[in-house]
Design a protein that fits this description.
Blueprint lengths: L1 H21 L2 H26 L1 H28 L6 E4 L2 E4 L10
Antiparallel strand pairs: 1-2
Length: 105
C-alpha cells in the first residue's frame, strides 16, 4: 500500500514537472509566482499556528527586561553613585565641574 502511494506521488511529480517544462515562458512564470504565493501563504499559516507561544514569551521577556533596566537607571540616578555635584535640566545632567582630560602625549 505504502509503496503504491509513494509510486503514485512520484509519477504525479514527474508529470507536473514535464507539464511545467512544456509551458511557454510567461505561463511558466505565472505558475511559478502562484506556487510561490501559495507556499508563502501555507508558511504564514504554519508560523501563525505554531509561533504564537514564542511571540508571547518574547514579548513578556522584553517587557520584564525593559522594566529591570528602567528600575536600575532610576536607582542609579537617585543614588548618584560616583557622580560629581550637578543639577538636572529635564533629562540632561549638568555637572558643576568637569575633570579636564589629560593630554595623550
Amino acid at each position: 500500500m505504502f509503496s503504491t502511494v509513494l509510486a503514485a506521488l512520484g509519477l504525479a511529480t514527474c508529470l507536473a514537472l514535464a507539464l511545467h517544462m512544456a509551458l511557454p515562458y510567461r505561463a511558466r512564470a505565472r505558475v511559478d509566482a502562484a506556487v510561490a504565493r501559495l507556499g508563502g501563504w501555507f508558511r504564514a499559516q504554519i508560523d501563525r499556528a505554531t509561533g504564537w507561544r514564542r511571540r508571547q514569551r518574547q514579548t513578556r521577556a522584553a517587557a520584564l527586561e525593559a522594566e529591570r533596566v528602567i528600575r536600575k537607571a532610576r536607582q542609579s540616578a537617585q543614588q548618584g553613585e560616583g557622580r560629581a555635584d550637578g543639577e538636572w535640566d529635564g533629562n540632561v545632567y549638568r555637572p558643576k565641574s568637569f575633570d579636564k582630560p589629560k593630554k595623550p602625549h
